[in-house]
Amino acid sequence: MSIDQHIEELRAELRNAVYRNERRWIEKELAKALAEREAIWAAHEKLADCEPPQ
Predict the structure, then answer these.
(1) Total number of domains constituting the chain
(2) Which candidate among 4, 29, 35, 51 keeps its CA 20 to 30 Å from the CA of 43?
(3) Each residue of 15-47: b (16+ CB within 10 Å) or e?
(4) What is the rounded CA–CA span in Å between residue 34 and residue 38?
(5) Nearest Cα to Cα of residue 31 among 9, 7, 5, 15
(6) In a domain? residue 28
(7) How many angstroms separate the CA atoms of 16 and 6, rounded?
């Protein structure tokens, strides 16, 4: 499963969450997944900005 799929699943779960503790847990997991995706994007940006070896 890709990180984007995971994020979308968490968002869907959050929309349907009934209990407060369940919502908190999903919100924490969603925040972690979003941070992970940002880190992945930053790593890709760093690689894209590198000069090719000469």
Answers:
(1) 1
(2) 29
(3) eeeeeeeeeeebeebbeebeeeeeeeeeeeeee
(4) 6
(5) 7
(6) yes
(7) 16
